[in-house]
Amino acid sequence: MTTPGRGLHGHVLDTLGPAITAGEYPPGSVLRTDELAQQFDVSRSVMREAVRVLESMHLVESRRRVGVTVRPKSEWNVYDPQVIRWRLAGADRPHQLRSLTVLRSAVEPVAAGLAAKNATAQQCAELTECALGMVANSRGHRLEQYLFHDVAFHRVILNASGNEMFARLGDVVAEVLTGRTHHEVMFEDPDPAAVTLHVKLAEAVREGDAARAEELTREITVGALQELDILAP
Amino acid sequence: MTTPGRGLHGHVLDTLGPAITAGEYPPGSVLRTDELAQQFDVSRSVMREAVRVLESMHLVESRRRVGVTVRPKSEWNVYDPQVIRWRLAGADRPHQLRSLTVLRSAVEPVAAGLAAKNATAQQCAELTECALGMVANSRGHRLEQYLFHDVAFHRVILNASGNEMFARLGDVVAEVLTGRTHHEVMFEDPDPAAVTLHVKLAEAVREGDAARAEELTREITVGALQELDILAP
DNA sequence: TGTGACAAATAAGTCTGACTTTTTGTTCCC
DNA sequence: GGGAACAAAAAGTCAGACTTATTTGTCACA
């Protein structure tokens, strides 16, 4: 998604970040900058920059004479895309996936309602195109192409809502949908009912029917939640 | 809220962050690390750490031979509490406040519904206590005390939902509520209807009535949205 | 005229070592 | 036992030298 490992400090983050978010260092653990620098075979300046980034994510806290202490999970910036990616790649992936899907179920219906009111003609066209793409790839194990249009569809909805907080959840939704297709058991073709819902949703948005758009999206997200319950009850 | 200006690099951030989020440097602007270091009268290492943090917030991008370029608003990590605070302190505060209130209106009802199912006895007690505190301070210009209980109330709801993504929005809600009381025109006592809604909500959660909790919260957030429309139509 | 390779300039990236500051824990004295 | 002085530890800061990637410009050649 984003460029990984840009520079030495990026490489350090790619290792330390996942380790911390995976709970490899329990909260309260104390790390020393110099020690870490040796372990990763980088200079102190590089390690300091990495620590600063982890600190800005509220994963750790750096204090004089003490060291770099790992913060409890409840204080992490769990909306940071980087943190989300690290956690999705780790052990509590199922738990994380559920949290995010619940978030989707709260946000997307409201976003769809707003999109019905605010979407431009251009966005309506894109939406219909995405829905068409989903239909066209809904059978015959064309999961990859289906996913592509599914992600694009939800991105357009979130953007069309006109709310920047919603729009920025596009990446999160993309991660969740991609994760579902790639990592979870999903050999079968997508649920035809879900495909229909997307087509109808594109329609509702185009017609400016906010209430219907909201309700349809609610059905879509309920489906996503049920899917999780089936896979990991 | 969080400790401001910890160390030199923190001080730099406290100046640069607000400046960038306020649009003082339009997207695409190029900054030079050395130049900034001189301006702020700090060493290059300190400035580099600051830039790294801004980079992790996706406010800027650092590239060799080019410099530190400011990214477009659409790429910022708008869920970063620090970024939220900077923007709330800046010029587009009204716009930001609206975005966040819309987010609340999407998330809180669902969170309340979950809270009704998952809240512990302890949390139910806290909720009732907060509601009582709101009632007790709803008249006689005791805005500060009222705010305190209001913030605590919503935090408990979000925590009790059992969803960590919701729980982490507690700070955001606190900022919005605090901002409303302190910065917006709010000389009058809070709307009695809103107070009643909170009392009823505490009741619904205690009784485990998810549907009612959700509906009551929807009414609360609708009220918050209307309030914004009245203040800045 | 266009194009490709090569060279120069530039700004970030990295490393090192010396020094400062804050915090904590200990010890010693009243 | 409590408080003040002291010592140690780790992060914080700085300055300077060096490396590397990227861009831009130039020049020769087709």
From TrEMBL, chains A, B:
Presence of the UniProt keyword Transcription in the record: yes
Domain of life assignment: Bacteria
GO molecular function list: DNA binding; DNA-binding transcription factor activity
Residue ranges occupied by any HTH gntR-type domain in the UniProt entry: 6-73
UniProt entry keywords in alphabetical sequence: DNA-binding, Transcription, Transcription regulation
Gene3D superfamilies in the record: GntR ligand-binding domain-like, Winged helix-like DNA-binding domain superfamily/Winged helix DNA-binding domain
PANTHER family reported for this sequence: GNTR FAMILY REGULATORY PROTEIN (PTHR43537:SF44), TRANSCRIPTIONAL REGULATOR, GNTR FAMILY (PTHR43537)
Protein name: GntR family transcriptional regulator
Protein's organism: Streptomyces actuosus
